[in-house]
Amino acid sequence: MYQITSPLRFASIDIGSNAVRLLLSDVIESKGKPVFKKAELVRVPLRLGEDAFISGRISKVKVKKLVCAMKAFQNLIAAFDVVSYRACATASMREAKNSPEIIKQIWREAKIKVEVIDGKTEADIIYSNHVEEGLNKKNSYLYIDVGGGSTELTLFSRGKCRSSQSFNIGTIRLLHKKVKPEYWDFFRAWIKLETKNVKPLIAIGSGGNINKLYKMGEKKANRGVSYKKLKALAKKIASYSYEERIKFLGLHVDRADVIVPASKIVLAVMKNARIDEMLVPQIGLADGLIHELYEAYRKKRKRR
């Protein structure tokens, strides 16, 4: 028999370009090794990127909705009695000219401190999940996180992070034709250069759209999804109209449009990196924040 301590609960908030998420997660310390277990996930599809990438500002209507969501999140954080929390905003808030005022308003009305993080920090937080530690050490892995405003890529090879880059290519940007052809060329060139002679290479995908593609991919149990299967699935989804994707494929209204550009991004990465298979552990920025919160708590406790 071994002792299992009472779970520690942490909360993370991901203010993305497509949706805002609150993740409440329990950390159970068993035999000195933490086990992370999702307790609750609340998602609000605000689409801040539609304002930020087109007008450069987030509208008063969406600011009001964002503040309302933050108030609700604060109440849930208090109700669940968390050890600590962290709230991070990504691409849409990075680009919105009025983000400093929005952050002040959120603190004033919801008492939540929001950090606007750059693309490199975003990639680092996603990578902090360290999914590759439980995988075959002989393989190399390319983390792919597709969001509404950006795509983060991190190459992990021979036990080390080899390179990491954030690109302003996201589902909301593509929907509104805000990615120039020359930027796509830069994106593809970076992938080819960084992954050259890196074999065997497997993708690790994250983000809501990648998770949904994975679930729709008819994959085998405990296996990844192949490039060939993803390509066929993307073609099938694109053949349906927006309304048909909701009616016949069962997609949510805020997923039925962005899943098409998400497919395009994922397939472009896998094709240019010559990757045949993608693993989807269903983790993301919010999960990475939980890992970092726990590590900070553990170090603080050790100093005591």
Which terms summarize this structure?
Nucleotidyltransferase, domain 5, 5-stranded mixed sheet, single chain, 11 strands, 6-stranded mixed sheet, 304 residues
Short description:
With 304 residues, this protein is α/β, with parallel strands linked by helices.
Got a strand count?
11
Number of domains: 2
For the record, what is the CATH homologous superfamily label of the largest domain?
Answer: Exopolyphosphatase. Domain 2
Question: How do the strands of the widest beta sheet line up side by side?
Answer: 8-7-6-9-11-10
Largest sheet: 6 strands, mixed
Percent helix among the residues?
40-55%
Secondary-structure element pattern, one letter each:
EEEHHEHHEHEEEHHEHEHHHEH
- Identify the CATH class of the largest domain: Alpha Beta
CATH topology group of the largest domain: Nucleotidyltransferase, domain 5
Assign an overall shape. globular
Intertermini distance: 28 Å
Rounded to the nearest angstrom, the radius of gyration is: 19 Å
Spans where pLDDT lies below 50 across 5 or more residues:
none
Beta content comes to 15-25%
In the CATH hierarchy, what is the architecture of the largest domain at level 2? 2-Layer Sandwich
Structural class: alpha/beta
Number of helices: 12
Mean pLDDT: 93
